[in-house]
Design a protein that fits this description.
The complex is a heterodimer of chains A (about 325) and B (about 325). Chain A has about 325 residues and is α/β, with parallel strands linked by helices. Chain A contains twelve helices and eight strands. Chain B has two domains: about 190 residues, Rossmann fold (3-Layer(aba) Sandwich), CATH 3.40.50; about 130 residues, 3-Layer(aba) Sandwich (Rossmann fold).
Chain lengths: ~325, ~325
Amino acid sequence: MELEDLTSLFEKAHFIRAFEGALAAAADAGEVPGLVHLSNGAEILELAVASVLDPKKDQVTGSHRSHGIALSLGVDPQALACEILGREGGLSRGLGGTQHLIAPESGFLGSNGIVGGQVPLALGAALSAKTLETGGIAVSYFGDGAANQGAVMESLNLAVVLKLPILFVCENNGFGQSTASSYSAGGTSLLGRARAFGLAADHVDGTDPVESTKTAERLVSWVRTSGSPAFLEASVPRLSGHYHGDEEKYRAADSRAPSSQTADPLQRLEAMILNRDVPSGLVEDMKHRAHERACAVIDKAIAAPDVSDTALDAYIKEAQ
Amino acid sequence: MTRMSISEALNRAHHHIMAADDRTLVIGEDIRGGSGVDGGLELGGVFGVTSGLAAKFGEGRVIDTPISETAFVGMATGAAMTGLKPIVEVMFCDFMGVCFDQIMNQAAKARFLSNGRFDLPLTIRTTMGAGDGSGAMHSQSTFGMLASVAGLTVVCPSTPADAAGLLKSAVEAKGPTVIMEHKGLYGVAEDVPDELPSVPLGKGRLMREGTDLTVVAVSAFVHKAVEAADTLAAEGISVEIIDPRTIKPLDEALILASVKKTGRLLVAAEDAAFGGFSDQLTAFVARSAFSSLKAAPVSVTPPDVPVPYGRRAEAVWLPGVDEILSAARTLASA
């Protein structure tokens, strides 16, 4: 990758990381109504996939852990932050929240509160693209935990049966909440599972920016040109708990999130940039800018008014 | 006008809908039928409602699915979010047990969670009803349970014109609609206007005027109530019958006006005996017209027991005209 591509990726990834950090601080300060599931560790993979999508015609669904996916697709960070904080100005005026982020105008059909529930919905986006001949495709993100849901397995099969243009992206972070994926899966090869359904499938190290981008490009291009589904398993670290505030007592102390930074894809990317001939201070400047920008967004969301008393009026009236 | 059965009316309505709007499509198990099988004929759904659609509109718009209700109901929901108007068939409402997440969490809540930024023109057709020996897992009637989910419209047509007209309205609705077709009514025939006019959602119908008591009857029970009313008229009991047609949103005004006139309410439905539509309607009338009531409302529903299989047991389980007669006589004299 060109240096310019690496730095662009670095800035975006650090903005997502800083957004999540500022959000965690806001949660600690009591500014977030519910629990948030942070994307730390998956930024590079998600940006790699987003870089080969067209938000005007493609639609993506994600799990409960979707802040990074939304930002990677270019969803307005301010509207996103306001939604996560349950504030006016949010994507859905604060009615949906972190697990129900919806921004189809940016190619993000929605995150989901039910593990695996978002996967069948993405089949629908693929069916619409196919039927209406838009040239678009669907992408559905889910985790290794969701891979054991019937909804996901049915969807893998149905996508092949109906030949739908969809890329399934399984982000394997090794955990379904506190339970290891090695415990939850009878057969631990998710690629084997996908191939048994007749899907083209590949694996990528989601901390490797070069391989992530190449693999995403190849699979998205194949789905788009063939109109057939494909499956990507991406290994990504979960650098924070299941949710922010999860003490992860179920993990050995030395493998808990704060000390697992060696696996951090952002550090890997930083090392790649520093290996090039770059001016001193470039990396720190980029991090600083991302941090400032993210804090400004979250601060503005904190200052936004809570969802108003009238937000439900139209729905209550319709229900009567 | 043409005389046609409910299944014929539904079939014709599908033809009208699909011809009028190429964003509509039909999705379900065996709705074309024989997919992947050489040489046979289209099945057109297990009750023939979707017959001839694949030949006319092609397999791209009449989609046979694997037995994967979660995946295909979810797919239809996602398609409705992204520009299509799917009609999805769940063969029996009992099967919603395997795909309830997609109905309860995904389809029902999507419009709200988007704060109205997209509509969800999703129609789910399904069948219900006991009386044909189908047993506990092919005979339930879950309209009350479905109506308790915020965001769902639920309709239970009892006539050919209503079945066709409500289907047309469902396809044009902004939110998801579940149409519950009683298996025992598919053959019920009447003269229907050839254009199959739309029937508005949320509007009930006064089937028969009367002065002594109001019977609110759902689906197959509408026909039982009409039969009972003839007998009761001969006995000097004047029965008003309302077919709500839409379970939710309920035409409360129509029902209230009638109960305020007669002062007596009998709900007759193949419904859950506990916490179903009948209980909801009884509670609503008690709250809204208590001072008009001359007697406590009465419900005629099956018992709080799964649908049995054997003929005699099923006949005992399922109330009929006799149970309505008996309840009405008691209520009229109370």
